Amino acid sequence: MDGNGIPLAFNINQGNTNEQTTLKPLEEKILSDFKLSKFIVSTDAGLASESNRRFNSKGDRAFITTQSIKKLKKHLKD
To answer: Looking at the whole model, is its pTM more than 0.85?
Structure first.
């Protein structure tokens, strides 16, 4: 979404499509269509695969991912 909450792009996939594989192509389309140099992706843990995190660590791209407190190691919970 842009700063006004307007979607920049969207995908409609079959219900049995793994969502982790849909993120990179959608981002590549947004990067290409809007000629963006800076890009921050905010996802839930379901989209935070290693491949998606690596893709969003290149250039001026970044990512924010939620993490379950219940699944954290004890020292991080403390």
So the answer is: no
